[in-house]
Amino acid sequence: MSRVSLLLLPLLLLLSACQPPPAANVAGYMLAQKLQSLPSSSRHQPAGAIEGRVVAGDRPLEGAVVLVAERTGQAHTATSDAAGRYRIENIPPDEYVVAAVAPGYAESALHNAWGGPVPVRVQSGQTTPAPDLQLAPLQRDTDPLDLSTLNLRLTAEYTATAPFPAGSAAQVRAFAFDRDGITVDTLRLYLPLDAQPGDRYPLVLFVAPTAIDDWQYVSAAFASQGLAVAGISPMLARGVDADAQAQDTRAALALAQAGALGPEIGDNRPIAMGGSYSSAILARLVRTAGDKLGGWVSVGGLADAFAGAADFYAGKLQMPPNYALLVPAFGLPNLYPLTFLRYSPVFVASELPPTLLIHTAADQVLPIAQAYELEAAAKAAGVPVETYYYTDTSHYLGIGDNLTDAGREMFYKIVDFVKRYGDQP
Q: Do the Cβ atoms of 403 and 218 come closer than 8 Å?
């Protein structure tokens, strides 16, 4: 492709009036790298402001978090008042798409009839009026899935062991199912080694950040403590679509609660657990699951995707190879803030179930400030929140030869949390 064609690509995508696909966003990022024109702040110019109104139907909506984000990811926020009005100040001059979210309402951004972004231009020293931003009620996962369409099948049965706690072992069942044209072959059920058909166990719904079988030690260790673990990992075929990954996870949960994975688990409220960027999948699941979850555990997780993007573009993160282009794949935050907002539970903390946050101060993938921000928001909203902050270099809960004292303590804190908040079938 010629240099002229590459330069025309963003214009053509803009004219198409829809958000570019992740591959196009990555291509644009790599081109910007080559041209040394990566997103940078415009803070050298005097700031401006945006004001407008958030509505739900024909009435103003109070308490919505309204924001715009710079190209670098830095977010500027305000909260709508009783008249639905907001004012966001200290915004560097540029074009921005205003986005908002409120408890009980789905995330939304200013868009045209074709779904394309409607930017608002901020100028130095001026206040720019924005069109009304309409929010619609959040559609929760209340309708039962037709499990017969998933074509669930058992693919293997075996025994797994773990070096910690001593003597840990588990029964394992591997499953595959089909959803939306994709075969999801990463579903596993771990049970205590001595589990009998009449036994029932609290359930951990584990969304692994990498390949599910890389987490066999962790899953077997939890099963050894009298827990059932339904584990699933993201499908490469889904790309960076965390909503699609969350729906795969929802399908796995529905199968587990229906007893399709085995009689040892049933229609109980599990504890959902994830770490690192799989917490973005959990953020979608937790928001739409309503009261189907008894709580959730985030290990080194994402709370504010805008802050994560800002750290990425500032060169502060050491991204794992599999996620090296995740942030650019979402698009420019100033024009496409909705994806970032949807993966930022900090802005809807009042909807969270009981929460356990685990993070290390040494984390260079997702800084511990992510956990601090979510902890503060959850406590302000009255959500039961527990934390375990530590200082060694373990980004994940790793059980193996390099298990640290912090890892051991973390493990037992999670077990205790699951047994207190997870339902017994």
A: no
pTM of this prediction? 0.90
For 59, 74, 122, 148, the CA distances from 93, given in Å and listed in that order, are 31, 13, 5, 53
For 401, the token pair is 């030869």
Residue 228 and residue 423: Cα distance in Å, rounded?
12
Alpha-helical runs (H) found in 236-345:
242-257, 278-289, 305-313, 326-329, 337-342
Q: How far apart are the first and last CA of the chain?
A: 58
pLDDT tens across 100-126, in order? 999 999 999 999 988 889 999 999 999
Report the alpha-carbon distance of residue 308 to residue 74 in Å, rounded: 9
Sign of the CA dihedral 6, 11, 15, 20? positive
**SS3 state at 224:** coil
Residues 222, 113: Cα–Cα separation, whole Å: 49
Whether 15 and 22 have beta carbons less than 8 Å apart is answered as no
Q: What is the average per-residue pLDDT within 176-192?
A: 95
What are the angstrom distances between the C-alpha of 295 and each of 34, 271, 417? 45, 5, 9
Beta pairing, strands 182-192 & 228-232:
antiparallel
Asked if the model's pLDDT at residue 395 lies above 60, the reply is no
What residues have CB less than 8 Å from 402, skipping those under 6 apart?
Answer: none
What are 194-251's pLDDT values in tens digits? 998 788 999 999 999 888 999 999 999 999 999 999 999 987 778 767 778 888 998 9
CA–CA distances in Å: residue 269 to residues 177, 265, 285: 22, 10, 13
